[in-house]
Amino acid sequence: MAEAKDLDRSREMARIAVSALEDKKGQDIRVIDISEISSLGDFFIIVSGGSLPQLQALRDEVEERLGHAGFPARSIEGGDDARWILMDFGDVIVHIFDKENRLFYDLERIWRDGREIGTEEI
Fold first, then answer.
1. Who's near 54: CB < 8 A, 6+ residues apart?
2. Cβ-proximal residues to 38 (8 Å cutoff; 6+ apart), any chain
3. What's the average model confidence in pLDDT over 17-27?
4. Which residues share a beta bridge with 84?
5. Cα–Cα distance measured from residue 28 to residue 48, given in angstroms and rounded to the nearest whole number
6. Residues 86-110: pLDDT tens digits?
7. What's the confidence (pLDDT) of residue 4?
8. Is the pTM of this model over 0.85?
9. Which end of the chain is more exposed for a tag (fewer CB within 10 A), N or C?
C-alpha cells in the first residue's frame, strides 16, 4: 500500500499524463487506482487513439510532459507501428491502445478490483 506522500506524487504524475492525453484528443480515458491491490504501481491509465499517428502523438506528449516535470519514463514498450504502447513511469503506468486491441485485452475487466476514478478526481 502506498504511503500518503508517495500517493500524492503518483496523483501528480497521473494528472500530468491525463492532461497530456486530453490535449491530444485521447479517447475514453480511464484511470484505475491499483494502489490497494497491487505492488505494480498506484495508477493505471488506459486510453484509446484512432490511428497510428495519434497513438504516437499520445505517447510522445505523455513522455515529454512527464519528463519535463521530472518524471522520466522507466521504460516504454511499443514503437511507431505498435497498436498497444505501454509506458512505465514507476507508480503510474499508461496504456495507449488502438480500439481493437483495447477491446481484445480489456484491461478494465482484468483490473476491476481496482477503483476506477474520474479524471477530475485525480
1. 24, 25
2. 114
3. 98
4. 97
5. 6
6. 999 999 999 999 999 999 999 999 9
7. 65
8. yes
9. N
Q: What is the pLDDT of residues 28-69, one digit of tens each?
A: 999 999 999 998 899 999 999 999 999 999 999 999 999 999
Q: Where are the domains of the chain?
A: 4-121
Helix (H) and strand (E) counts for the chain? 4, 6
Q: Which residue has the cell 499508461?
A: 94
| pLDDT-based confidence at residue 3 (cuts at 50, 70, 90) | low
Count how many Cα atoms sit within 13 Å of the Cα of residue 60 in the half-sphere of its side chain: 9
Question: 34 with 41: CB under 8 angstroms?
Answer: yes
Q: Is CATH 3.40.50.300 the classification given to domain 4-121?
A: no
Q: Which three cell numbers stand for residue 17?
A: 499524463
Residue listed under C-alpha cell 484505475: 32
CA nearest 105: which of 16, 20, 15, 44? 44
Whether 45 contacts 18, CB under 8 Å? yes
Kind of pairing between the strands at 92-98 and 43-49: parallel
